[in-house]
Amino acid sequence: MTLNLERPMIALEAGQLLTLDDAAGTRIVSRLGTVWVTEEGDPEDHFVGPGETRVIGRGGRTLLQAMQPAWVALQ
Q: Which domain holds residue 14?
């Protein structure tokens, strides 16, 4: 899926996955809830909580999974 929105805000249900391909440089901002983020080729996983930000540092596939209901902005 390709989103062509300037600043999409995405609602995720608990456990729901969002897949981003070749999204290096995209900023993930958690507005509500915590999301788990894993990037292809990165041995570490990351958690982004309310008000926190993570910038995707690699190309390839990035997965986000909501740990509870969450609102996530992609910039």
A: 9-54+67-74
Structure tokens at 72: 């996530």
The structure's pTM equals 0.84
Count of positions (residues) in the chain: 75
The verdict on residue 2 lying in a domain is no
43 lies in some domain: yes
The count of structural domains within the chain is: 1
DSSP string computed for 23-57: -TTPEEEEEES-EEEEETT-S-EEEE-TT-EEE--
Band of pLDDT at residue 8, cut at 50, 70 and 90: confident
